[in-house]
Design goal:
The protein is α/β, with parallel strands linked by helices. Helix content is 43%, strand content 13%. The protein has 26 helices and 17 strands.
């Protein structure tokens, strides 16, 4: 953006901000945006439609009787956009009211509320839906009117010149973005809920475009951009800006979907005032209702909710997973119900283009999708699917305290289905969380206390572009791995069960509490206790067969018959683990595993499990063995395959403890300070 446009946008934002001050006392600061943003949109549309006002009214008056709604809309769209030449394809809006800002200004101030509501109701369906249902703007107008400040606010907006020939589409976009940012920052109630910090978005855009600069240059280039959780549209707007900086002639088509009504209204309004097709922004839950079903996009980016459960709309997601499998969006697996981030990512992957251009995805998530869930879990299977398909290009760890509503660590995932040759089969991890990549803010905004420096953003993009790996100035922050480096086999290691048996008083008390024993009637309980306490030898048995022989003999001698569950309860209650005892064998003569000694080993995917066991297990527990029935559902190999990406493991930096002498000196200094303070108090 040139300096003139930047200054114009700033001047307009300051003017509008002064109007917002009119609301002080009657509205909370967190509510300013609910009034000001719709008014900006309304005034912009009023200015856009002013030259064609008479043409639309004439066309509306001469519409044929019985005309269908679609034809009616197209005729009025045509009348409204006739003044704008090549830009008319995006002007899907008209207003059939006799009123506009100029006419309302010339009428009685006491009628402003009624006139504005009547004016809004005569917009085309798309615009009317935004103002009435999403912004709930008539409710705000009512509040303004009751506070006796509606005319004052309206009069100031009526003086605002937002005609296209005075304020370009680019400047309008920056005005809108600046206002959204300001309103988000002053609202401690919703700060960050619908607004991703600008420098984070710019970093994602830089990472998405840095390898595509050449492909985006030239004439006739068209690219489609999609945000699955578009909020107020900031990511879409800055992506277009980044692409326009590379190629001013590129045509960028923006698409999105948003669940929050107010955020949807802001985003759709942004499309209206910046000349994009507002119909490309859909309202609703992306995960349960894909409003852009069948569409594919060149670039996709998103900042989905972190750690938000999907329990209340789980049924349609589970149904799609089970019914469509790999033909649906969630075929790779379902993450735990408490976090739906990987659902958004799978949804975006389903929209990758299969042509030569392919697609690129940038998504911000917290640490959970990196490592949550063991082998065979939904999360692990989704990671496995992405890595085995070789879609993950890089993952960038961001500094903490970047976002307005959370200070947690976040990560940017970069995916593509058209990797460059040197990246095939490889994943780059970049640790951009260090102090060299951020600076403290002069004033905290909610949880946001840091921001990524512009030069640091360029450095991160450079590290990604150059595939920096080991050596050089970025050896500590960038490492490249094979996709298989993140995989492992979870093998089940068993050890033999060794038990001794004795009819001691303590063990008999355990038998009395066993559920099968408690189900017996009192007479049967007495018979069992008589056998165990009085007829079994007091000796300590070191092998189960000998004890079972003694138990059978005692039962037979007492004439007592017991069912299998009771016998099992007796064996369990009268036994204890004993490393010196004989191994318990099953009915086939094989060692019986001890559940309490069972262990799981994670064998690197590139290493054979037998080699691993011979090196890491057998020397320490010679009697252990691997349960070869514990197999992977997909490749049927021994052990379940899992994938995790543990940043801390790869970027751990050992910090040696301070010398004891230094710690001791510090403690003595503190003791002296405390003694001095106590002396002052006592004196």
């Amino acid at each position: 953006m040139d300096d003139k446009t930047a200054q114009q946008a700033k001047t307009l934002a300051n003017f509008v901000w002064q109007i917002a001050e009119t609301l002080r006392g009657d509205f909370k600061q967190s509510e300013y945006g609910k009034v000001i943003l719709p008014f900006v949109v309304l005034r912009r549309l009023d200015c856009i439609l002013e030259p064609s006002k008479e043409a639309v009214l004439k066309a509306h008056a001469t519409l044929p009787q019985g005309i269908d709604e679609q034809t009616r809309d197209m005729m009025l769209y045509s009348a409204a956009s006739a003044q704008f030449g090549s830009h008319s394809r995006n002007l899907l809006v008209y207003n059939t009211s006799q009123l506009d800002f100029k006419r309302i200004s010339s009428q009685n101030a006491g009628d402003v509320h009624e006139n504005l509501v009547a004016y809004i109701r005569e917009f085309s369906d798309t615009v009317r839906d935004v103002f009435l249902d999403k912004f709930r703007f008539t409710d705000q107008l009512k509040r303004l009117n009751e506070a006796a400040i509606l005319w004052k606010v309206f009069e100031q907006f009526a003086k605002l010149d937002l005609r296209p020939q005075s304020v370009s589409t680019l400047a309008m976009g920056y005005l809108f973005e600046d206002l959204i940012r300001r309103f988000s920052e002053i609202s401690n109630e919703t700060a960050g809920e619908h607004f991703t910090p600008r420098e984070v978005i710019r970093l994602i855009v830089d990472l998405l475009l840095v390898n595509d600069a050449q492909a985006l240059t030239g004439k006739g280039i068209i690219r489609q951009v999609y945000d699955a959780a578009c909020g107020t549209g900031g990511m879409l707007a800055l992506t277009e800006e980044g692409m326009k900086n590379l190629n001013p002639d590129i045509r960028v088509e923006l698409f999105g979907q948003e669940l929050n009504g107010e955020s949807f209204g802001i985003c759709k309004s942004d499309m209206l005032v910046t000349g994009h097709d507002p119909e490309n922004i859909a309202f609703g839950n992306t995960l349960t209702h894909d409003a852009h079903k069948g569409r594919q996009f060149h670039y996709m980016l998103s900042n989905p909710p972190y750690g938000v459960d999907w329990k209340k709309y789980a049924d349609p997601i589970k149904d799609e997973h089970e019914r469509l499998g790999e033909d649906g969006r969630f075929g790779a697996g379902l993450p735990r119900i408490s976090d739906g981030q990987l659902l958004f990512l799978q949804h975006m992957i389903s929209k990758m283009r299969e042509d030569e251009a392919g697609s690129r995805i940038g998504i911000v998530m917290n640490g959970s999708p990196l490592f949550t869930g063991g082998a065979g879990s939904g999360e692990s299977e989704i990671r496995r699917w992405m890595l085995e398909k070789d879609w993950i290009e890089a993952i960038v760890a961001l500094p903490t305290d970047l976002f307005y509503n959370t200070g947690i660590q976040t990560y940017v995932w970069l995916l593509t289905n058209r990797k460059r040759r040197e990246r095939v089969g490889r994943v780059q991890l970049i640790d951009a969380s260090g102090e060299q990549f951020w600076k403290p803010m002069r004033k905290s905004l909610g949880s946001k206390r840091r921001e990524i420096r512009d030069e640091a953003r360029e450095t991160i993009a450079h590290i990604f572009h150059e595939m920096a790996n080991g050596g050089g100035p970025w050896a500590e922050v960038s490492k490249i791995f094979n996709t298989t480096d993140f995989g492992y086999r979870e093998i089940k290691v068993e050890r033999p069960l060794k038990l001794n048996f004795q009819a001691s008083a303590e063990r008999i008390e355990r038998l009395k509490l066993a559920k099968p024993f408690l189900k017996l009637d009192p007479a049967e309980q007495d018979d069992v206790l008589n056998v165990v306490a009085n007829r079994l030898p007091d000796a300590l048995f070191k092998d189960r067969p000998s004890f079972e022989v003694a138990l059978t003999k005692a039962l037979k001698g007492a004439g007592v018959k017991i069912a299998a569950p009771i016998k099992k309860a007796i064996l369990s209650a009268l036994s204890e683990r004993d490393e010196t005892a004989a191994i318990c064998l099953d009915s086939y003569g094989r060692p019986e595993p001890d559940p309490e000694l069972r262990d799981y080993e994670l064998v690197p995917l590139k290493e054979g499990w037998k080699t691993y066991v011979a090196r890491e297990v057998a020397p320490f527990v010679p009697d252990a063995w691997v349960d070869e029935t514990h197999r992977d559902d997909t490749d049927k190999g021994v052990g379940r395959v899992g994938y995790e990406i543990n940043f801390n493991r790869y970027f751990y930096r050992y910090v040696p403890p301070r010398p004891l002498a230094e710690i001791d000196a510090e403690l003595k200094a503190l003791e002296a300070d405390i003694a001095g303070l106590l002396k002052e108090v006592a004196g």
